[in-house]
Amino acid sequence: MIVIDKVEFDTGRYALAPDFGLRLEMAHHSLTAPFTETDLRLYAIAGDTLRVVLDGLVVVGSGGDSDASCAGSFHSSQVSLAMSPARHHGYHDIIAVERTDTDNPSPDQNGECESHPGKPVTDVPAAL
C-alpha cells in the first residue's frame, strides 16, 4: 500500500509568481518492492481564487525489485528546477533537469552484497 509520509510547504524561491508550494512524500515500505516519491505542487492566489501553477511534478523518486536479501534492480531520480526568463500566461517557465541512477546489487563470491551501479543519466533540460 502506498501511503503519504509527509506534506510540507516548499519555501523555494521560484520567482514565477506562485504564492506557495507543497511537497508530498509518498512511499511503499516493502523489502522486495520499495517505492518513494516526492511530488511538487505550486499554487498562486489570484484574488479569492487559488490557482494551480504546477500540479504533481515528481522531483524525487526511487524504486525497484529485489529478492529481499541482496539481488535486485533499483532506480532513483532527482529533478533540479531553475526559472527561465521566458514567460507564458503570466508565469515564468520552469526548466527541469532530471538525473537518473540505477543499481543492480548481487552477492559476490563471498556472499556479501555488492553494488553494481549503472552510469548516471542526465536528461536534456526541458521547459515546463
Structure description:
0% of the residues lie in helices and 66% in strands. The protein has no helices and ten strands. The chain has strands at 3-10, 20-28, 35-46, 49-66, 72-88, 91-103, 106-107, 113-114, 121-122, 126-127. The strands form two sheets. Strands 1, 2, 3, 4, 5, 6, 9 and 10 form an eight-stranded antiparallel sheet that branches. Strands 7-8 form a two-stranded antiparallel sheet. A hairpin with a 2-residue loop joins strand 3 and strand 4 (49-66). The protein is elongated, with a radius of gyration of 18 Å. It starts with a strand and ends with a strand.
Helices and strands in order:
Elements: E1 3-10, E2 20-28, E3 35-46, E4 49-66, E5 72-88, E6 91-103, E7 106-107, E8 113-114, E9 121-122, E10 126-127
Antiparallel strand pairs: 1-2, 2-3, 3-4, 4-5, 5-6, 6-9, 6-10, 7-8
Broad structural category: mainly beta
How many β strands by DSSP?
A: 10
Q: Between the first and last Cα atoms, what is the distance in angstroms? A: 30 Å
Uncertain spans: none
Q: What sort of overall outline do the alpha carbons produce when their principal axes are compared?
A: elongated
| Tally of contiguous helical segments | 0
Mean pLDDT: 88
Largest sheet: 8 strands, antiparallel
The H-and-E topology, N to C, reads as EEEEEEEEEE
What is the CA-atom radius of gyration, in angstroms? 18 Å
Helix content: under 10%
| Percent range for β-strand residues | over 45%
Q: Concise description?
A:
0% of the residues lie in helices and 66% in strands.
Summarize this structure as a short list of keywords or feature phrases:
two-stranded antiparallel ribbon, 128 residues, eight-stranded antiparallel sheet, mainly beta
